[in-house]
Amino acid sequence: MPDPRVEGLERAAALHWQAPETEPLGEWRLRAAAGFTGRANSALPLGDPGLPLPEAVAAVEDWYHRRDLRPMIVLPQGAGPDPLPAYLAERSWVPRPGPAFVMTAEVADLPASTADVRFSPEPDAAFLGLYRYRGQDLPPIARTLMMSAPWQAFGTVCRDGRTVACGRISVGGEVGVLTAVEVDRACRRRGLGAAITSGLAAAAAARGARRILLQVETGNAPARALYQRCGFSDSHRYEYMIAP
Description:
Helix content: 25-40%
Number of helices: 7
Strand content: 25-35%
Low-confidence stretches: none
Radius of gyration: 18 Å
Order of helices and strands: HEEHEHEEEHHEEEHEHE
Distance between the termini: 28 Å
Mean pLDDT: 95
Structural class: alpha+beta
Number of strands: 11
């Protein structure tokens, strides 16, 4: 049976990175954003799609093909229809590289901010000068996604006149979500990751968030260790399955 806690977290997280094109398939959600990021270009299969599973998957495939995108479905561990992973495997869908963990923390358990974090309501030059998605420059649609939450702010930490850490915090209800955290390679292992994390969490707390959520790839051991030191713990794992 699906875990209501996991489904609740996944539904909450979806509010913070909303694709410009979405369409319901029953209770499932189809999302497209010109291929930028898995979250914005995958079907979120929570609840009842309103169709038998084979027809629902066929509808997903058709929807993405009509947008010249490779069909992709996210599979959060503990949520979604139980037969779905096996059915996709039978149809030769394969995992996309980079499975990830959702990590959560109560705001009250996070350390106080020790850095002077400057915030902007939009991704400004300081933020955009440092942040890269998987090492790549951001496409134009990235701004649309980063401004898609109920509320968001973009934090930066500067040293000697240059930006050395940045991150995005968004809030919807009592949940804050951390995304786009980056530390200058030349300045790592100096506590800046923890500093920007705690600063972003403090901004979320000021907006009424009681819990902070983030997503980090399972293979990113340094980032996971950082977040664990800050008070985050694993909630569940997820991966993307892509059509052949």
